[in-house]
Design brief:
By secondary structure, this protein is an all-alpha fold. It has a single domain (7-129), classed as Ankyrin repeat-containing domain (Serine Threonine Protein Phosphatase 5, Tetratricopeptide repeat, Alpha Horseshoe), CATH 1.25.40.20. It is 56% helix and 0% strand. The chain has helices spanning 7-22, 25-33, 48-54, 58-66, 81-87, 91-99, 111-117, 121-129. It is globular, with a radius of gyration of 15 Å. It comes from Micromonospora jinlongensis. Keywords: ANK repeat, Repeat. It holds the Pfam family Ank_2.
């Protein structure tokens, strides 16, 4: 097995990550429905879900979760989708992740630690109520 992907495959993967960042829910969902792995990860360990959460796209977060994206995966820095959504104060993304079972105490920093560090009391309250 080779560790190298051809240029066309890399370009496709980059485009999928860009779709997650942009919140292009319909196009990304179509790719997932066609077989794109819901837990596709880039060279920094960021999943499509982490990127969608970080860029505050709750519809994309929900689409990824409904297609099997793992809410507990952390990137290479220990950050989770839930912590990313909290950092961006994306209430709907946080709610979707909590409903899917995301743990506010998981990750480094955790979502709770992120809310406290950045003085986001509404996010702390949402996480504790979740």
């Amino acid at each position: 097995m080779t560790d190298h992907l051809d240029a066309e495959t890399l370009a496709f993967a980059h485009r999928m990550f860009d779709l997650a960042r942009a919140g292009s829910t319909e196009e990304l969902a179509a790719q997932l429905d066609a077989g794109l792995p819901a837990n596709l990860t880039n060279d920094k360990g960021d999943t499509l879900l982490i990127l969608a959460a970080y860029h505050a796209h709750p519809d994309t977060v929900a689409a990824l979760l409904s297609r099997g994206a793992d809410h507990s995966r952390a990137n290479d820095r220990g950050q989770t989708a839930l912590a990313a959504a909290v950092f961006r104060s994306s209430t709907e993304a946080v709610r979707a992740l909590l409903a899917a079972g995301a743990d506010p105490a998981h990750g480094n920093p955790s979502a709770l630690e992120t809310a406290q560090f950045f003085d986001l009391p509404e996010m702390t309250e949402l996480l504790r109520a979740g």
